[in-house]
Design brief:
25% strand; single chain; 6-stranded mixed sheet; 10 helices
C-alpha cells in the first residue's frame, strides 16, 4: 500500500453561516481501505463530507486529494478527479427508469462510447439492476435504491467514495447486502470513507477509524484498535451512535 494518504485534511474549519462545525479537523484516508468516521451527534461527520466535496467552503486549513490541493474545488471538478459523494437519504429520480438514473451518473462523461461501456459493466456487476433496468426507480426497495445510488457513482470510475449513512431505513438483510457491495469495492481498489449509524458494525467492516468530537479529530487508528478500546466503546459505540445525526 502506498504510504501517502489518498485524502488528507489539515486543520480544516468549516460550517454553516455564522456557525462553525469543523474546528481544525486533521485526518488522512489511506488508499484502498475503508475508513469509518464516528462520533456523537453534532460532531461534524456529515459536515466533513460536504466540505471535502466542495458543498461547504473551507474557512481555514487545506484539503488534498491524490497529492493535489482541492481546497474549495467545485463538486464537478472533484467528480472529474475521481471523488464521488453519496449523501444521506434517498437521492434518485423516482419517476425515471433505473437505466436513466444510471445514465445521469455519467453526465460528466463526454465520451459516449466509454459511457456505454461502463453502463454495460455496471449492469453486469449488479444483476438486480440489470433485471429492473426499464422499471421506474420508485418500484425498487430501499436497499435496491441504495444499490442504484452506489452503482451510479461507479460510472465515473472513482478513486474515492464518500458515503453517508447507507443503512438508514434498510432491513438488516439489505444492510448486509450494501456492506457486501462496499467490501467488493474495496477489493477492487476503491477507497471508501464511510459514516454509518451502526458504528460498531461499520468498524467491523473497516480497516481504519476516525473519531470526531466537537468538530475536531480525537482519534485516528485501525478499526480493530478502536473497537478494542473500552473508553471508545463506552463513549462512542453505545446507543448514542445508533441514531442518525440531527445536527451535522
Amino acid at each position: 500500500m502506498n504510504a501517502k494518504p489518498l485524502l488528507a485534511l489539515d486543520g480544516v474549519f468549516a460550517g454553516y453561516g455564522k456557525m462553525t462545525i469543523l474546528n481544525g479537523v486533521t485526518a488522512s484516508v489511506r488508499r484502498g481501505a475503508i475508513t469509518t468516521v464516528i462520533g456523537p451527534n453534532g460532531a461534524g461527520k456529515s459536515t466533513m463530507f460536504k466540505t471535502v466535496f466542495g458543498l461547504l467552503p473551507v474557512r481555514a486549513g487545506a484539503v488534498t486529494f491524490d497529492g493535489r490541493d482541492i481546497t474549495n474545488v467545485s463538486p464537478r471538478q472533484l467528480l472529474d478527479a475521481g471523488v464521488v459523494y453519496i449523501p444521506q437519504g434517498r437521492n434518485i429520480f423516482p419517476e425515471l427508469s433505473v437505466r436513466h438514473n444510471l445514465e445521469l451518473g455519467g453526465v460528466a462523461l463526454s465520451n459516449k462510447a466509454l459511457l456505454a461501456e461502463r453502463m454495460a459493466a455496471i449492469l453486469r456487476r449488479f444483476p438486480m439492476l440489470r433485471q429492473k433496468a426499464d422499471a421506474q426507480a420508485s418500484t425498487l426497495s430501499g436497499g435496491q435504491q441504495k444499490m442504484l445510488e452506489v452503482a451510479r457513482g461507479l460510472l465515473l470510475d472513482p478513486k474515492l467514495i464518500l458515503i453517508d449513512e447507507p443503512s438508514i431505513g434498510l432491513s438488516p438483510l439489505m444492510v448486509q447486502e450494501v456492506f457486501a457491495i462496499l467490501q467488493g469495492l474495496r477489493e477492487n481498489g476503491v477507497t471508501i470513507l464511510l459514516i454509518e449509524q451502526n458504528a460498531r458494525q461499520a468498524l467491523q467492516l473497516s480497516d481504519y477509524g476516525l473519531v470526531l468530537e466537537q468538530g475536531q479529530t480525537r482519534i485516528e487508528d485501525t478499526a480493530a484498535k478502536i473497537l478494542a478500546d473500552p473508553r471508545i466503546a463506552q463513549l462512542f459505540l453505545g446507543g448514542g451512535l445508533d441514531q442518525p445525526e440531527q445536527v451535522t
